[in-house]
Amino acid sequence: MKLAKLFLATAIALGSATAALAADYDLKFGMNAGTSSNEYKAAEMFAKEVKEKSNGKIDISLYPSSQLGDDRAMLKQLKDGALDFTFAESARFQLFYPEAAVFALPYVISDYPTAQKALFNTEFGKNLVQKMHDELGVTLLSQAYNGTRQTTSNRAINSIADMKGLKLRVPNAATNLAYAKYVGASPTPMAFAEVYLALQTNSVDGQENPLATVQAQKFYEVQKYLAITNHILNDQLYLVSNETFADLPEDLQKVIKDAAEKAAAYHSKLFFDGEKELTAFFEKQGMTVTHPDLAPFKAAMEPYYGEFVKQTGEKGAEALKQIQSLNK
C-alpha cells in the first residue's frame, strides 16, 4: 500500500514538473529546405532564440524538406492559421501579384542592399508587404540574403556564345525560364529532386542555383564547369501567420520579431561567408570556374523586361522603374 502511494506521489510530481516545463505556445515552422541547408540552420537559431528569450513560453518545431507541402501550400496554411511560420522569396509572391516577379528579373537587382531597398524603401515594395498582410494573412518579420544564382555545366562558359543550345535545367518559374531562353540556352524545367541524376546522365547539360545549393546537393560531382553569371539574387523572407501573431501578447510579439531579425542576419552571413569560400572549394573538387563578361548577358535580357511590362501593365512598369532607379 505504501509502495502504491509512493508511485502515485511520484507520478503526480512528475506530471506537475512536466506541466511546469510545457510551453504556453507550441508553434510550427515549415520550409522547403532540407536539414543540411543554411535556411534550416538559421531556422534552428530562430527557434532557439525564441525559446530562450521567451523563457520557454514559446516552443517552435521545425518541419523541413517540404513535409507540410510546397511553399504555395504553406503560405495558404499561414493564412488559414494552420501553420505559424514559413520562408518565401519576395519574387514568389508573383503567385498572387504578377508584378512581384520584378524581384527575380535577371540582372535587375544587383546586390543584397538593393534587394533590401527594393522591398522596404520603394513604394512598390512597401505596398506589397501591406498586401501580403491584409490580403494573404501573413506578416513579414525580416528579410535575409539567400544567395545569388550561378550556372554550372558540362562545358566551359567563357562568353554568352557558349550558352547557345545549352540544355539548362531551371525551376518552372517565368524569370528562370526567361534567363535560359534569352541568353540562348534551351530551358528545361524539372523537379528539383530529379536534377542530380539528370546532370549525371547528361539528360541536361547544366543547371543554375546559388553556390550553397550546388554544394549541398553535390552537383559539383556531376558538373565540370561553374560560370559566375550572377543572374538572379535570391532573398528569403521570415513570415508569420497574422492569426498566430495576433494571439501573442505584445512582449512575445517583440521576442518573435527580434529573433527573426537576428536569425536573418545569421542567415545572410552563412550565405555571404559561404560564397567567399565555395569557389575555391569547387576548384579543389575539380571544377573549372569561369567569369564571362556579363554585359552581353544583361543586354540580352532587355527584350524580356519589355515582355514583363507587357504582361503586368502599369503596376509592373512602375515596379521595374522604381527598382532600376536604385542602381543609379
Automatic annotation (TrEMBL):
Ligand binding (N-acetyl-beta-neuraminate): 89, 149, 169, 209
GO cellular component: outer membrane-bounded periplasmic space
Presence of keyword Ligase: no
A GO biological process held by the record: transmembrane transport
Keyword terms: Signal, Transport
Coiled-coil regions listed in the entry: none
InterPro entries: DctP_fam, TRAP_DctP, TRAP_DctP_sf
Cellular compartments annotated: Cell envelope
Signal peptide start and end residues: 1-22
Top-rank lineage group of the source organism: Bacteria
PANTHER family: PTHR33376, SIALIC ACID-BINDING PERIPLASMIC PROTEIN SIAP
NCBIfam families: dctP, TRAP_S1
Family statement drawn from the similarity comment of this UniProt entry: Belongs to the bacterial solute-binding protein 7 family.
The name this protein goes by in its record: Sialic acid-binding periplasmic protein SiaP
